[in-house]
Amino acid sequence: MMIVLIVLALSVVSILLAVSVYLSGVSTPSHVVSSSQTGQDDLTAAFLAIIGLVAMTMSMFTLSQSRRQAAEMKIEIPKVMTTIECKKCGTKTMREFQRGDYVYKDLDACPKCPDTKQVITAVYKEIKEKEKTYNV
Amino acid sequence: MYVMIREVENSLHKLKFIKEEGRKNALDAIKEIGKPPVDPTARVDRYLEYFTIGPQSMDPAGIVYKLDHILDVRDTRLKDEVKMMAPGCDDVQVNNLENTLEAAMALNFIYKVVRHYYIQGKKTLSLYVIMQIQMILPMVMKEAEAYASALKAFAYGQPIGDGAGPLVAAKLMHGYEIRKLSKDCVMATIPLEGRTALIIKAEGPGGNVGKPGDAVEAVIEENEGKIANVIMIDAGLKLEGETLGEVADGIGAAIGGPGVDQYKIEEKLTKYHIPINAIIIKEDIGDAVSPLRKEINDAVDKVIERVKALILEQTKEGDKVIIVGVGNSIGVGQ
Question: Which residue, A12, B74, B101, B329, is most buried by CB atoms nearer than 10 A?
Fold first, then answer.
């Protein structure tokens, strides 16, 4: 991180130098310096500007990458579903998992058959996204 | 070298975040479920640094029972620690909290090992030190992410992928009389395809794997070795490219862990010349410790069909068969 910040600072310095070299070339009257001298200043300014811009782009990219990585750092909690079944009529219902649920836990009576208890028959998570396949 | 160091550094930041989340989740769960009278933070931090020293192996005779004893002591000690942290918990919750803390402990350990290699690599400026950790980093990160997703599952008591074996056993024994066996295991005797099936699993719904080795030993001795076949069902690690929830069968004691249970089962089977079959449900490490996936749940019926086919093929009517559902029974009753 430190190196990236140093490169960023140097790139800013390089761009500022480029601007200053270019402006000094423009502000100096033409009779004071030769045309070849002005051309050399322009070339130096352009060179410094290119170095500065490339370095700045690279350091900004690295910074944004590390920011993105930091934002990605979270633990996803999957949605877990509980399947409830009536032993008598076989009616199946699904709801979101509640703390205390477990497979083969007896629940309240079935709304259709009041004399039979419902039971949890499955607790699982479903992942919709398909895994990447490799044709090998 | 700079690129490698950067890569390890980025992963280390992520591991630190995951480790802190693990610790926070464990603390929140203890405070919420256990209603501790005093702040459990210091005790949790001490728990995360807990270590176990394996037995000396210079003279390996009898090492299995020494290791068994050490693991028993560890288990009792960790459970007692949890009970002290969260006195308001019942046994099921104690098991679930212990599993949550063990996941946090694993994350803490992974972070510290990666940090060790990173700092050592920077200190010595040795490419080989950094390379060692950089090369295995994708697998390490995968395991850490798996433990991170296990934290909530353990705290809430949700079934996990490793519970595939107990889930099969639970489906077979549900509705029959259940009796307790040795440490944290249960058994039911059921009729299956004209045979008597003795179904064994770890007692649920609390998070625990029981001691299937002791349970199988006890049941074989109870029946004086007159067992026609032993079928073990477990979750097995799949290779990349294999389908999640694929069912495969083979020969041998399908049981992971430190090897104590496998040893005990093999000893008893050899003594009475009992054949052993194994059925595995394939899943990767991430699926094994995170909430049970639908594909694994759907594989349960396929396994039961396979068990029935095996019994018909390899035993005679009236024989006794032991069926063991190996794995963590968290979120799976019986």
Answer: B329
